[in-house]
Design brief:
By secondary structure, the chain is mostly helical. It has a single domain, classed as Ferritin, CATH 1.20.1260. About 70% of the residues lie in helices and about 0% in strands. The longest helix has 30 residues.
Length: about 180
């Protein structure tokens, strides 16, 4: 494996992205079990998005001729006390990933890895959007804690699937 610190850190980030995907799948299952299908669908989409982020990183490493490590991950949290806890956890996770992405971009810059730094720019933009949308959703579920069907209505009105971003890095395995 390369002694490039950015490559090592990017391989570690793959684990974080897969972990985020698993956590979002667990949140989606929680909402599915609570018969909140729009919240469930939102988090199933988020799970796929995080999985694709990991696969974008895999593809970058493959393209760069670097070794790829597909790591094991910890089991996600599956129990929640109410409809707010999963979204609060998701926002905390997005903020943590934002710090990780920023650190990766900084590491690439520090080591004059211009290709790595450029690769991370899309993720920086993506994290701004992720934190913003999860913050909005948290405010909604907090206000609708006593009647989560109002959060369902909000998602029906505002939370449709987004169009594919043509500037996104290519994910290994294509658009599976």
């Amino acid at each position: 494996m390369s002694d490039n610190r950015f490559v090592k850190a990017l391989n570690e980030q793959i684990a974080y992205e897969f972990g985020a995907s698993q956590q979002y799948a667990a949140v989606a299952v929680h909402y599915d079990a609570e018969t909140l299908p729009r919240l469930a669908a939102h988090f199933y989409r988020q799970s796929l998005e995080e999985r694709n982020h990991a696969m974008m990183m895999v593809q970058y490493l493959l393209d760069a001729g670097e070794d790829v490590i597909i790591p094991g991950i910890e089991a996600p949290r599956t129990g929640f006390g109410d409809t707010v806890e999963p979204v609060a956890l998701a926002l905390e996770q997005e903020r943590r990933v934002t710090a990780q992405i920023n650190a990766l971009a900084g590491l690439a810059r520090e080591h004059s890895d211009y290709a790595g730094e450029q690769f991370m720019q899309w993720f920086i933009k993506e994290q701004v959007e992720e934190v913003s949308s999860m913050s909005d959703l948290l405010r909604v579920v907090e206000r609708t804690r006593e009647n989560p069907l109002l959060a369902e209505e909000y998602l029906a009105r505002e939370g449709g699937a987004e169009a594919a971003d043509p500037t996104a890095p290519h994910a290994a395995g294509g658009a599976l």
